[in-house]
Amino acid sequence: MELSVARNCLLSGDVFRSIASFQRGIYLDMALFLAMKKFAFTHYNLAPVFAPVDAVLAPWLNEYGTGRLSVLFNTLRHMRPIVVMYAIYSGRLSLLQFIHDHDIPLAQLGEFLVDLAAWCGQLDIVKFLLAINHPGCTSHAMYLVCRNGHLEIVKVLHAAQKDCNQSAMDAAAAHNHMDIVSFLHFNRSEGCTTAAMDKAAANGHLQVVQWLHSHRLEGCTAYAMDDAAAGGHFDVVRFLHENRHEGCTEMAMCGAAARGHLDILTFLHANRDEGCAFFALDKAAKNGHLEVVKWLHAHKPHDGSTDAIDFAAKNGHVEVVKFLLANRSDGFTMKGLMNSIQYPEIFKMLYKAKPMSHACIIESVIRENQLELLQFLHERRARGFCKHALDLAVELEHWEIAKYLHTNRKEGCTEIAMNKVAMVGNLPVLQFLHMYRREGCTTFAMDAAARNGHFEVVKFLHENRNEGCTFMAMDGAAARGHFDIVKFLHTNRREGCTTMALDLAASGGHLEIVQFLHEHRTEGCTTNAMNGAARNGHMDVVKFLHDHRKEGCTHDAIHGAAQNGNLDMVKFLLANRTEGYMYKAMDRAATYGHLHVLEYLHAQERNEGCSSDAMDGAAMFGHLDVLKWLHANRPEGQSYMATVEAVSGGHLEVLEWLDATGKLFATSSLLTRAALTGDMEIFQWIERKILPTTRDYQWAAGSDFDTEDLDMFKRLIPHFNMTSLSVKLDRRFPVLKDFISHELQNNADSDVEDSDEESNALLSDLLRRFVVAEEGA
């Protein structure tokens, strides 16, 4: 039988989506995108950055194609740059073209898309973005493609006359891209720095080192041989020794020793006179290089310290520890002994060599649950055992250790042991402690057991112990809804409770407990009972308190109900209570987007009204419908905070409305707020709407520095103070750190003719310390 037209309509997904578009909220298929945030490009490996997005976005695109992109972007504005960047990363050129043609010209997006496409090695997308004149291309693009070895993109960027600096050849050399090094040498004039040969040597790229030695004049530094030695690149070390004059430092032998490169160590010892650092033996021992340790002991007998055994023990290098104990007198510290706890053989070896007894050692053994070592220390009559040892074993639930201490030691424990067991509800252990130990517990035991709902523990303590409890037992049980415990305590104990019991039971919606306390106890409650119940939406509790108690409530009852959008509660309280409310009720309803509550309170024709906090709060959370309603129906208006909070919350539609109604406050903090959110669209919008001063940009730049937002940083870096960059450079993640160091280099190059000799010396020292950022991160 053919389906009717009506049934066809009802079974149509498109029709239902159209119907759903009139509802408030987020489409079901887009709910997964709510939590997505802007990408943090902090490390060079982009796979972990895009993997979570790929897992959600790829299936969505496969199902809907481009058909729902406009709906997605209109519903969740933050998804536009995310989808665009994902398309670049995954090489979906057709998707980019669709967005460019049907949604927004990509050149209007403030993100540095050419840089990203170059980073991802997407040649066709780089060409497309250059063809549409996308402005998001910096010298970082050339650096990234040189670093990643994309020669064809290097040629495209070169043909487009895009910016480049010395870091490009440095990066290509560091990562063994000889073809790119050669291309840049013969086609560009920027050259490189000593970092090119330094990093090529560090990574063992002998061919690149030889080529740079033959074709370039920049040379290298002592870091070249130092790092080549540490990396185990013997051929590079030999070449540098035979062909370069920069030499090395004592760190060359130290690095070779630390990494276990005995052949390089002996070569440097025989052919160089820089020597090695005194801690070379310590580093070799730490990393377990026994043969190197033996060689250093034979040739550098006066080097080394207690760190050798301390770190060898920490890393479990048994043979190294044996050798050092047998042949050296440096010894070890208590730190070394404690570091070895996870390696019983080493621990015993060290303890026999130098017995150290301290409570912290016993504690560490218990924390690591090392029963074997505890027995060892006991048999050796080690000092440091105390009552807290058994307390700790019980607290950590290391029962075998607890039994051993109980059986073999005389220190016993304190009340803490039984208190902790009662708190977690472990009745068998509690019974054991009660039967075999005399320390007992305190009132905390029953108080905590009652609060956490351990009824059997409460009964056991009541029947077998005499410490009792305090009023906190019933208060805690009532607050958590443990009705059986409340009844038991009421029937069997005399400590009673306080008004907190009924207050907290009411706030938690535990009606049975509220009724029981009302009928059987005399402590009563306070206004907090009805206030809390109203705030949390427990109508049955509110009605009971209204009908049976005299304490009533305060303004906060309606304030809390309004804040949570509970209109029925608001109506009940207004109809049955006389406490009323203040302006905060409308303020909170507006702030949290409860327009229906706002309309109802407004219709009551009362005098409380609201304050400017209503519009400010609605702007903070992006409730445009509430803002429009307040603007049309209330005279209070808003303060400058409405604009500030709309920027902080990323609510562009609110900002546009504030601007259209003449309510936009252009303050000096707006650029800073936008920079902190990383919302490039809002940042650009603010730039168009106000005339920022240089000071505004500098504040924004200084604030953005701590957000690790690479795109925003690139936009703001022309306004950065180079001194502030250098101070914070050492704390940055690899990508941003390298980018900053390149900017410092560019600044040095551009200012070299204008700066005096002293300034050049200071800047050169700065670059030596910071330009050597981790290329391999």
TrEMBL record:
InterPro entries registered for this protein in UniProt: Ankyrin_rpt, Ankyrin_rpt-contain_sf, SecEffector_AnkRepeat
A Pfam family that the UniProt record links to this protein: Ank_2
Residue spans crossing the bilayer: none
Protein name per Swiss-Prot or TrEMBL: Ankyrin repeat-containing domain
